[in-house]
Amino acid sequence: MRRLFALIYVATLAPLTSCHAPKPQIVIGSKFFTEQVVLAELLAQHIEARTGIHVERKTNLGGTLLVHKAMQASQVDLYVEYTGTALNAVLNESPTGDSSAVYQRVKQLYGHRFNFEVTEPLGFENTFAMVIRGEDAQRLHLQRMSDLVPVAPKWRIGVGFEFLERSDGFRGWSERYGLHFAQQPSVMDLGLIYRVLQDHKVDIVAGNSTDGVIDSLHLVILEDDRHYFPPYDAVPIVRRATLEKFPQLRGALADLGGKITGQDMRHLNYLVDGEQRDVEAVVRDYRQAHNL
Fold first, then answer.
1. What is the pLDDT of residues 183-223, one digit of tens each?
2. What does the buried/exposed string (b/e) look like for 237-266 if buried means 16 or more CB atoms within 10 Å of the residue's CB?
3. Which of the residues 54, 63, 75, 231 could staple to 25 if both were Cys, CB 3.0 to 4.6 A apart?
4. 8 pLDDT above the threshold of 50
5. What is the pLDDT of residues 222-280, one digit of tens each?
6. End-to-end CA distance of the chain
7. Can you give the pLDDT at residue 189?
8. pLDDT reported for residue 216
9. Where in the chain is the domain with CATH 3.40.190.120?
10. What own/partner pairs with CB < 8 Å and gap ≥ 24 does 222-225 have?
11. Do the Cβ atoms of 181 and 260 come closer than 8 Å?
């Protein structure tokens, strides 16, 4: 009789315990700026719609190396990186060659060293952009980075921490162009640089070429006429262990290959930064409009 009661109890309990079993999921991470949060949400929505896999968002984690370490520690399964950044900041190599050569090198080394898969590029590049006020560009006839040489000794520059520290950042850039500014760079959060530029607290900032507010604030990106900055193509990077666990993920990521233009990305960033719209809603509308 006791055995019968035990069997009845186990049979009754089993459905209850199975309800509490954790659902299979992947974790998408992002760095600490708007575009990264938008891209994480875009990948998350697309993966959930395409595969039914639940996606946990861990956005605004920090800089490149912090997110990379989270991937290595299996705390994050997937995030979007930029090829020039991967080669320089993570792999400690100097990017050389065209976009395809840099991409292939990153793909090879990430697979060999970290067991990460570098998937198909999303279709746009986000390079460092040296940005000035529109009125200064017009008044001083500034179009190219080399035009800064005579004005730099009177100018102040604002940068993010990564641009100051990276070998493809401030030091190499200022040396390539022979620039000597009035003082050491002011280091600030990337979300503040354009406000500080508008308030005339600095005269030039190191932003990103896809920042959405550049046009709306009538700012000007200077041409990199000495070709200092390498290719920075946006590519999803995923742990191979995650692809083995969720093989359908590969097809979902391939769906997005080459689908996002630089203009698309600038517009998405503007909707979030310029119009203060909700990231989830912005991405949902974009996916519907582009049949993703």
1. 999 999 887 899 999 999 999 999 999 998 898 899 999 99
2. bbbeebbeebeebeebbeebeebbeeebbb
3. 54
4. no
5. 999 999 998 999 999 999 999 999 999 999 999 999 999 999 999 999 999 889 999 99
6. 59
7. 86
8. 86
9. 128-221
10. 222/129, 222/130, 222/131, 222/132, 222/137, 222/142, 222/143, 222/144, 222/145, 222/147, 222/148, 223/143, 223/144, 223/145, 224/127, 224/130, 224/144, 224/145, 225/144, 225/145, 225/146
11. no
Taking residues 142-163, report their average pLDDT.
96
Where in the chain are all domains bearing CATH 3.40.190.10? Answer: 24-125+231-289
At the topology level, CATH places domain 128-221 in D-Maltodextrin-Binding Protein; domain 2 (3.40.190)
